[in-house]
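User: Modeling request: complex.
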Amino acid sequence: MRGRTWLPWAAGGVLVVAAGRLLEWAGLPPVSLLETGLLAMTPLALAAVGECLNEKAGLVNIGLEAIFLLTATVGVWFAELGRSGYVGLLGGAMTGGLLGLGLGAVSVYGRADQIIAGIGLNVFALGFVPFLLISLWAFPGIHVFPNELMVSRLRTPIGQVSPVTLGAVGAAVLAHLLLHRTVLGFRLRAVGERPEAVDVAGLRVDRLRLLTATIGGTLAGLGGAFLPLGWFGALVKEISAGRGFIALACVVFAGLEPLLALGAALLFGLADGFASAVAVTPGVKERVPFYFVAMIPYALTLAVVAVVIGRRRFPSTVGRPYVRE
Amino acid sequence: MRAPRTLRPLLESVAAVSVGLLAGGVLIWAFGHSPLAAYRALLMGAFGSREDLLETLAFATPLLLTALTFAVGVRAGLFNIGAEGQVYLGAVGAASVAGLLPLPPGVHLLAATLAGMTAGALWALVPAMLKAWRGVHEVISTIMCNWIALHLSMYLAITFLAEPGRAERTIPALPTARYPVLSEESTLTAVLFVAVGLALGVYAYLWGTRAGYELRLAGENPDAARYAGVRPERVVVLSFVLGGMAAGFAGASQVIGRPPAWSLYATLGNVTTLGFDGIGVALVGRNHPLGSVLAAVLFGALVQGGRLMEYEVGVLSELVRALNGIVVLAMAVPELWSLLRGRLVR
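Assistant: Request completed. Predicted assembly structure:
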């Protein structure tokens, strides 16, 4: 596992250089690509890092898409109430944590089929978000909020970077240290592999799993609120656009290692940024229909999961409820 | 007191739907409306008159088909949530043959129907092959395929199928490729019978043939299936193709089986969310083709009744879809049943 840490980073590096050259040739500065790529990476990385922890402990949350959708909406609502983008991010993170905790409780205590429960959450969000948009702002499908609620970006040598992006990188590093350098991390990994042994040792399987479900939800919620408040500047009813599932692909791609998940998120983020950049580049946009450009992130996700992943080894109890014998 | 074994699944479904309605009631109340008035309008809108009932059935038809997609997947141990994209391409397939290809009556209808089913099945082959040969989890691959299908279908609809002068929809199906309207007072067509026939066919296939038995065995007990010599790749491909055909027909049904447009909107507005809504229908129907027929009528009623609810009480019909999600969540929780019976004392 550790021997291949360099692989996604190297792949990402090659892609950056190649895309940079291509864009320079097409007349677009690579810096703007990197800027967009980092923005697109942020929600993916946050959700994927949290889900790595969650799956290490033996739970699966395929409702990340729903958490993105719901927390993007709630985040904007909080931002308008608190008159600050940061309040929105906080509201989104808290909502995400609650959703994660709820789904975790349903899985741990209700012994739910976690895939079906996750599908249920996704279907719920699909209907509830348009409902919320109209209920809160009396406007169907889209809501544009005041520009001053946007979380401001920091000026750096590689362009403007959102502080949330730095937070996502920090979260990946912290999650890595937590998993591999702390007693709690050891216990979390043990809960995913041998819950019965952890139980016999006198630790609470249910609480450890609820903990990871909540952390995962909180990080995904921060990512969801970031979508409108840190990136798009507006809210649309399909704002997540499959990114929850792309984050899941990052998790699978990374074999549940947070740092690798960060690398995968950067790769997909750059593809996303590349697509947005190409879609508006003069000379390209007339020749390539927008529809094909819009497919790039999804097609790339499919290609990457098909080519790179193969079959990865997951904790033995992933997705299965723990029943004390 | 134990409920008889055959009754239990039914009661569980009723319990899950009740939880959904209850949660929906709380949401209606939270946004300042009367849940009772809303649900009364919903019921009246769905079953209040002959016209409403027929319209309920018209809404139920595509839901039954996309429910079959999910149900066949679950029977094989797979979570095929790609019905959505398969619906889009089924609609494009049917619209192109129905609108562009002049054929004699009868043949044309059959050709357009088959085109929709084939397009859906072909689109389902992508995640099927990725699963069978690369072990790619179908939840991720089908969602990616859904998004690719969305853009691909819009591209095809706008570039090749758009009606001249009316870019908002595709060329309407020629009269020879339209299912006959059953009653002038609703949009229900004979496509309903074909959909129910397909459900019966899937039932006969799963419970009456060797391949169907192998498919169910692979879903229920993969180890036993492998031991018995069932090839898992075959099961994956088979269940996806069957599901894709059903979903493709669902898309076709909205083009060649639904007045007044007889065409696919350029925004795909008349076929979107059918695939996701079918998941709830399948689960409430216990992943059984015949159960799905009953569940589809229920969910069709929610959609049709939701329109009156929005009109009369002001509760947005989007709530119905949120309710669908809560029902799916409730169906996922086996302990809910014991909880409702007050037996969660451990």
